[in-house]
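@channel sequence for tomorrow's demo:
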Amino acid sequence: MIITIDGPAGAGKSSAARALARRLGFEFLDTGAMYRAVALAALRAGLDLHDQDALARLLAGLRLELPPGRVLLNGADVTPEVRTAEVTAATQPVADSPVVRRRLVQFQRAIAAGRDMVCEGRDQGTVVFPEAACKFFLVADPLERARRRQREMAARGEAVDFATLLQAQEARDRRDAARDLAPMRPAADAVVLDSTALTLDEVVDRMEAAVRARRTPAR
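structure tokens (generated this afternoon):
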């Protein structure tokens, strides 16, 4: 069974997806970490992030693994590195790359084949797993999302001005929604959840109830 959770940054997708996977005994797939890992590899190689041929060559020699809670790039643990501000900024052009997106969509489908998995990202329910059994689209007030992001960065020792963070978030939302390739939008059959005033447990409670209702045959 595949469960997808999509939505903008700061809506709480990753935390909700991990918690839901634990409750259900499913595996968790953090697709955003994949794009971040490719961005990190491209930065280390000094590539032009808009050069599709260069990105294709990079992908051909890239080994990406996602054991629980970690990101391995060519065998090395890069979990902290993929969350830095530099990699975050570089992830946008990488995520917009047709070459990268095609390759990672294939990889995501291969990982999830035959497994019970909660997949989190931007296009999981619309592009990667359009036949997923349960789809969620998680949203939150932009100010609350920016506050959450600021707290996450502060916990990693990164101080960022709130206004600057909010402006970057708004620009990213516009790009994600307007891009030609896999725009960020709810699937037609997705359950849209607003997490602004909900605790993490409350969000996961609602998701779990929806999943268990779907798995229980009607009598």
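heads up for whoever presents: The longest strand covers residues 134-139.
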